[in-house]
Design goal:
Radius of gyration: 18 Å
CATH class: Alpha Beta
Mean pLDDT: 79
CATH architecture: 3-Layer(aba) Sandwich
Strand content: 5-15%
Number of helices: 11
Oligomer: single chain
Order of helices and strands: HEHEHEHEHHHEHHEHHE
Shape: globular
Number of strands: 7
Strand order of the largest sheet: 2-1-3-4-5-6-7
CATH topology: Rossmann fold
CATH superfamily: Alpha/Beta hydrolase fold, catalytic domain
Distance between the termini: 32 Å
């Protein structure tokens, strides 16, 4: 019941007017997901004044390199002329973006900030353990099989971040079997340690699970914070910001981005 109340309060907040630059945000989903996984975040970002694209791609059908070339040029082209181009990625979507941006010719002239949610930047231990299983390949395709932690895996072959990057990792799991295969704290698919990337500007650990983190109100609030300020904001609370948004007296960077989230536990900024 408490979670349902939070959800409706968050949706109500999303219907309020907001004031933000008309920049463009590309939302890039992860492995075995679709563009619909970002519907909630899209609505919030639009209310913040952003142009938003959430392209879909056949994540389990082709290698990462081919997927990146299929989806990102068109998305970047659609954002041209709409101000700064930002990216928000989930899971493998972050690897697609890293692969694409490693080529200087691919970089938008107005490249802005990027937030990665649960990215396997150092690879996934689950791929190490399960990647040789035939059923794993059937479900996850060639892209999923390339995400191991070994030195020859695709994530480990990509360069460090040389663009403004914030990373949010999850620390809760609904997959105890998978978590038993992952060392340290994890979100059920990716360890917190694996999300890290040299060159990142900020890193935040929140009590969310891998599969649904993009719909968590606190995650969305922190995405908005980083896109606006280039850093995460640990001061965001549920009631204070909600009251500000309802009153309409304080929407934007001066009062927690008009977004209000109750912390399930104190986030870890690392």
């Amino acid at each position: 019941m408490r979670n349902l109340t939070r959800f409706f309060a968050f949706v109500a907040w999303g219907l309020l007017p907001s004031f933000a630059a008309a920049d463009c945000v590309v939302l890039l989903h992860g492995l075995a997901r679709s563009e619909t996984s970002f519907v909630v975040m899209e609505q919030v970002l639009r209310k913040q004044g952003y142009e938003v694209l959430r392209p879909g791609y056949e994540s389990t059908e082709f290698p990462v390199t081919q997927l990146a070339d299929q989806v990102l040029p068109a998305a970047v082209a659609a954002c041209q002329g709409k101000g700064t181009i930002h990216f928000v990625t989930h899971s493998m979507g972050g690897i697609l973006l890293r692969h694409y941006l490693k080529e200087a010719a691919h970089r938008p002239a107005q490249l802005g900030r990027t937030v990665m949610l649960g990215p396997p930047n150092r690879g996934s231990e689950l791929v190490d353990e399960l990647g040789d299983w035939a059923i794993f390949g059937m479900i996850n395709g060639p892209a999923g099989q390339s995400l191991g932690t070994g030195p020859q895996s695709l994530p480990r072959q990509l360069p460090p971040a040389d663009f403004p990057l914030g990373i949010i990792a999850g620390s809760q799991s609904i997959s105890p079997v998978f978590s038993a295969l992952i060392p340290g704290v994890d979100d059920g698919k990716v360890s917190v340690e694996s999300t890290r990337l040299d060159g990142m500007q900020d890193h935040l650990v929140l009590p969310v699970t891998h599969t649904f983190m993009m719909n968590d109100p606190l995650v969305i609030a922190q995405v908005v914070a980083f896109l606006k300020e280039g850093r995460f904001d640990q001061s965001i609370t549920w009631m204070d910001a909600l009251n500000n948004a309802i009153a309409g007296s304080c929407i934007g960077a001066d009062c927690g981005y008009g977004l209000t989230i109750e912390k399930q536990q104190e986030p870890m900024r690392q």
